[in-house]
């Protein structure tokens, strides 16, 4: 992996008003050519962080360097190298998709052809439709088109596939992956863990303004326990200390899923016990995320 940092954040803090800390002293590096994901529950501080990285908001404390520069003070140098897709685009509604993208391209120094980008985001057949008549998912794809048409070296995508149907989401993933393969570094936020697993080389999970865990998806999941669930019944003594019971379901947590499952099945066989509702699940990004969300 290329470990040349394109972006570094140290002690990044953002407070609202006099007392609310939305981003609480976080540190991370984003390397050239990678896709870095910022994940977290609603209100974890992802957008508040992204806005500082993008140079749209000032940090209350800490530093950010983008291409070694200050994204606010050196805005003139940094901005042309960045593409931004925010949660809300806010286009004039009476322009068509093509007019909107052409107008935006007119402000950039090195835009790709408008028709090519409309084709990439599958809006070529909707090019002459006014923004007011586009569906929510189509507006989202127009947002993405505006973010990539300037051939940015660093692309920020804030929930790029929210509102897209599953097929359009897959297409957006392919497009984002192909933009990365052309050398662009990408920072994205998402609520879709499958999206993070598919796209992100590394990710950080935020909770209440802090980064709780970070690394590759595999390294974040490693060390997290797997679970065995079944309908509530008396269980072997050796599992009692790792078992919890909730709404009629017993859950055993384990770091040795195969071994413990084999033991449990052998016990059930010997004692003639029916393990109804049996479900064994390896640790996943989702289980890590849910534990963090629950403050575990
Ligand atoms: N302008 C603001 N003034 C006061 N509080 C704010 C402001 N913007 C955000 N917040 C608060 O800061 C916290 C972090 O918000 P932020 O939008 O960064 O979270 P997020 O992780 O992006 O959430 P989501 O997944 O819902 O988009 C939330 O508690 C939010 O209510």
Automatic annotation (TrEMBL):
Q: Domain of life of the organism in this record?
A: Bacteria
Q: Name one GO molecular function term.
A: ATP binding
Q: Which Pfam families match?
A: ABC_tran
What is the membrane topology listed in the Swiss-Prot or TrEMBL record? Peripheral membrane protein
Identify the keywords attached in UniProt to this record, alphabetized.
Antibiotic resistance, ATP-binding, Nucleotide-binding, Transport
Instruction: State the PROSITE patterns in the record.
Output: ABC_TRANSPORTER_2
Tell me which residues make up the ABC transporter domain.
7-233
Cite a GO CC annotation: plasma membrane
What GO terms describe the biological role, i.e. biological process, of this protein? Answer: response to antibiotic
Alphabetical list of InterPro entries matching this protein: AAA+_ATPase, ABC_transporter-like_ATP-bd, ABC_transporter_ATP-binding, P-loop_NTPase
Q: Where in the cell is it found?
A: Cell membrane
Q: What is this protein called?
A: ABC transporter ATP-binding protein
Q: Which species expresses this protein natively?
A: Flaviflexus ciconiae
């Amino acid at each position: 992996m290329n470990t040349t940092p394109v972006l570094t954040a140290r002690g990044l803090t953002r407070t609202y008003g006099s007392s609310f800390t939305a981003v609480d002293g976080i540190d991370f590096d984003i390397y050239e050519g990678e896709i870095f994901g910022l994940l977290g529950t609603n209100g974890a501080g992802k957008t508040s962080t992204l806005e500082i990285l993008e140079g749209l908001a000032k940090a209350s404390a800490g530093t950010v360097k983008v291409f070694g520069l200050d994204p606010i003070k050196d805005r003139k140098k940094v901005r042309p190298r960045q593409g931004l897709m925010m949660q809300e685009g806010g286009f004039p509604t009476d322009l068509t998709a093509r007019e909107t993208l052409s107008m935006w391209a007119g402000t950039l120094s090195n835009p790709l052809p408008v028709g090519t980008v409309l084709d990439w985001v599958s809006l070529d057949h909707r090019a002459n439709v006014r923004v007011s008549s586009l569906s929510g998912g189509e507006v989202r794809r127009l947002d993405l088109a505006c973010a990539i048409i300037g051939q940015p070296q660093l692309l920020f995508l804030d929930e790029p596939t929210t509102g897209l149907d599953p097929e359009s989401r897959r297409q957006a993933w392919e497009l984002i992956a192909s933009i990365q393969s052309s050398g662009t570094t990408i920072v994205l936020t998402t609520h879709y863990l499958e999206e993070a697993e598919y796209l992100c080389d590394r990710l950080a999970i935020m909770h209440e303004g802090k980064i709780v865990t970070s690394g590759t998806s595999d390294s974040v999941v490693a060390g997290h326990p797997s679970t065995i669930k079944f309908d509530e019944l008396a269980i072997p003594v050796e599992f009692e200390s790792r078992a919890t019971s909730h709404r009629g379901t017993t859950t055993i947590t384990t770091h040795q899923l195969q071994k413990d499952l084999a033991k449990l099945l052998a016990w059930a066989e010997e004692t003639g016990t029916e393990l109804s509702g049996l479900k064994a699940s390896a640790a996943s990004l989702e289980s890590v995320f849910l534990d963090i969300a629950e403050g575990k």
